[in-house]
Design a protein that fits this description.
This protein is mainly α. About 70% of the residues lie in helices and about 0% in strands.
């Protein structure tokens, strides 16, 4: 029997992907307004944190 490699979606995963996308967009747009490096770094860090949280939730759901 073949094991299905498709990961099950966690509840509200689409909302989390949307939030991560918004963080990336905020990080990309910040330099246009002359903001500091912190204004660019923090949103990207938030996006990485959200994506890591999605991976963690998927792993715990599969276990």
């Amino acid at each position: 029997m073949r094991k299905n490699r498709m990961q099950k979606r966690v509840p509200h995963e689409g909302l989390m992907w949307g939030a991560a996308g918004f963080c990336v967009l905020a990080g990309l747009v910040a330099p246009l307004f002359g903001d500091s490096a912190t204004a660019v770094t923090v949103p990207f860090g938030g996006a990485v944190s959200i994506v890591g949280g999605i991976a963690w939730l998927r792993r715990n759901q599969a276990a």
